[in-house]
Each structure stands twice: as C-alpha cells, then as structure tokens.
Amino acid sequence: MNxxxxxxxxxxxLLLDEPMSKHTSWRIGGPADRYYQPADIADLSLFLSQxxxxxxxxxxxxxxxxxxxDGGIRGTVIATSGVLDGLEQLDEKTVRAEAGVACAKVARFxxxxxxxxxxxxxxxxxTMGGALAMNxxxxxxxxxxxxxxxxxxxxxxxxxxxxxxxxxxxYRHVSGPKGEWFVAAQLQLEPGGEPKVxxxxxxxxxxxxxxxxxxxxxxxxxxxxxxxxxxxxxLIEACGLKGQCEGAACVSDKHANFxxxxxxxxxxxxxxxxxxxxxxxxxxxxxxxxxEIHIVGEAA
Length: 300
Hints:
Layout: E1 13-19, E2 31-37, H1 41-49, E3 57-60, E4 66-68, E5 73-79, E6 87-91, E7 94-98, H2 103-112, H3 128-134, E8 137-138, E9 141-142, E10 147-154, E11 159-162, E12 168-170, E13 173-175, E14 180-188, H4 195-212, H5 232-238, E15 245-246, E16 249-251, E17 259-261, H6 267-285, E18 294-296
Parallel strand pairs: 2-5, 3-5, 4-18
Antiparallel strand pairs: 1-2, 6-7, 7-14, 8-9, 10-11, 10-14, 12-13, 15-16, 16-17
C-alpha cells in the first residue's frame, strides 16, 4: 500500500488485521492485512487510486465460494456487500445492480417489477460482483445470460463501461481485461410478467434449494464444478464420501458437493478434505474434478 494513503479523504472504513472468519460463509479464515469497506463507488475509486500498483487486492461479497487459508491474506480486501448496494430500474426492461447487492435481492426486486428472467439469481448465495466474476448459475440459469453491460473500476480507480463481448465467458468462468473489477451490471430482462407469479416461482426455487442443500450450516456453496454430462455430487457420493470428515470439516450428508463446517473447522481441514475428494474421485471414477471455490491466502 502507498505510504501516502490519505485516509482523511476516504469515507469508508479501513480495518487492519481483520479476521476473515467474520466475513466468509464457511466462518473460516485468518486475518487480512487491510480490510476496506467503501462508502460507495466514488469512494472506492479514490481508495484504489491511492494504492500502490503492486498491492494485492481481493474482492469480497458475501464470502461464499471462498476459502481463506488460516494464515490470512497479505494485501487488501475490499468488501462490497451492503455498501455497493445500488439497485434501480433504468427502463422497462433494464435493471442496474451494483456489485455488493445480494443476488437473491436482485431476483426479488425484478420479480416485484414484473421483469422475468432473473428468478434463478435467488439460488446464488452471493453478490452480483461475485456472480459476474465467475458466471455463477442456479436452476439452469447463468448470470451472464441476462447481462447487457457492466461497469468496471481499474487499478487506479478509473471507471470503464464494457459489453459482454469484451469477456471470455464459459461455464463458471469469466476472463476479461486485466486489472479491472466489476462494480455494477445492467441486466436485460423480459417485461410484462405478473409479480405474484414471479415471486411464487422464486419461493418455490428457494424451497427446492433448502430441501437439497445444507443451507442451515456454514458452507461455501458447491465446492466443485459439474463435469460435462455429469454431476460432481453423484461422483463424490459414488465414492462413499458422504459424511466423511477431516477435523471439523465434513462432506454434507444432504448434498455431497457441499462441505460443511460442523464447528471450529480450519481452512487446513477443508483444503485437506477437498484434496482427498479429488484424489478418490480420480482413482475410483476416472474423473478429474475442478474446484468451483476460490482458495486464497497463506497457510498458518
């Protein structure tokens, strides 16, 4: 970080040595050197402009789909959840959602406006920023299937507007211009829907998710990508790994592609269990699983 960081000019909150276990859905993670919660996009732009170009920057939404190692993060975490929270309807079929808005909130907002096509977002346990970064999906829908444009911030805080064609978008993967981060998206949806029908659809999808996934226990969502033509959960269950544990980290009995923190699990427990699952599925099913979650930070 630049020694010349002018904290007096910033309107957000800067914390030092902040435990990431307080901010991840697994309730796991060592301390981040710096943790910044911006006041808004303009404040975030100013903050980024004061960082050294070599400063490692990590973006955090709801902390799902993320494992922070026990030694923590050397660098700066930017927390968007609840602060980059702008959500508005721009015209009859376009909604603008900032990166820190929960995907489920976007789904409900669109349904109330009679805009269909975003209901699947209710099944994504994260924010729009994270959903954009990995093309998150649920119930057959994918984030970038409804994206018309995005707003980005560069390493020095400069704002850019981009279209989907500026990115390479595939299943659970998005790559684009280096050194730029998502701060908002414009979603193009279908007008003329009946709000009560759309809201009922969301309620049914969430009930389905609750029946099939261990939503009441600390988890990070699906741990592995589904191989083409198959399901990671089926492969893991076929290896007899449901309920298997490393320390306090266990494969869920409810859904084999979820690892739950049964109480006091460490990142090392989770990472060891992930490696064990990958090894056994490769040996017994001849399939190389790919992680869907991101692992960051240093070992203790």
